[in-house]
Amino acid sequence: MLNVNRLKDLEVLKDRVYRSLRDAISSLDVYDPGVDLHLDERTLAEQLGVSRTPIRESLIRLENEGFVKTIPHKGAFVVRRSLDQIIDMVHVWAALESMAARLTTQRATDFEISKLRTLFSTYDGSKCEAQINEYSETNIEFHRTIIELSRCQALVDIAENLFLQLKSIRLRSITDPARAEHSIIDHIHIIEALEKRDANGAEMLVRNHTLRLAEHIEQHWNFSSSE
């Protein structure tokens, strides 16, 4: 069942309902075969404490953005993409984030880049397995921060929807301790390139890091889409 939080006030209700559903969907382990992908309007309305109208409007909006699919006579379901679709999305992300890394070397301050290093100050690859859940969130924050530090609003806007669709994929892929350890090493090398203002190096390291995610998915994932 989707885990959503009850709304505390009615300010800009439809937008708050939309954001609540979108955030809950992006945090769902969509690729776990045991997860129920069905979105029941009545249940969601009860959980959020609203009528079904803003729920229905939000589901339409989420469908237009690729998070939800409505099947006639069955209802709305969270989209579980095919392997080929996931790989395509990761490749697009590699292009976006690598350009963001290049721009970050040119536009971010030393202090802003230094905050990336503090994200990993408590992590040791040999201890990663015990901290895997915490590291998963740090990993997400790292990639989102690089996009933001690019100071390119057009890139940020384009990346946001894709980032949310990839969130559950990143969270699932990082549960392998060996991959988490390699991920930490990659991130440190990326930070070093950013600190040196090495635009070419940072761009290449970020792109290769993300392409390795695509390779990992191709080699280790085995699932069917909901389509």
**CA-CA gap between termini:** 20 Å
CATH-defined topology of the largest domain:
Four Helix Bundle (Hemerythrin (Met), subunit A)
User: What is the SS-derived class?
Assistant: mainly alpha
Shape: globular
Strand content: under 5%
Encode the helix/strand succession as letters. Answer: HEHHEEHHHHHH
- CATH hierarchy, class of the largest domain: Mainly Alpha
Main beta sheet, described?
3 strands, antiparallel
Task: Tell me the number of strands.
Answer: 3
Query: Low-confidence spans: pLDDT under 50, at least 5 residues?
Result: 125-130
Q: Count up the helices.
A: 9
Rg over C-alpha atoms, rounded to the nearest angstrom? 19 Å
Kindly state the percentage of residues in helix.
55-70%
Counted up, domains total 2
Please state the average pLDDT score. Answer: 87
CATH homology superfamily of the largest domain? GntR ligand-binding domain-like
Trace the largest sheet across and list its strands. Answer: 1-3-2
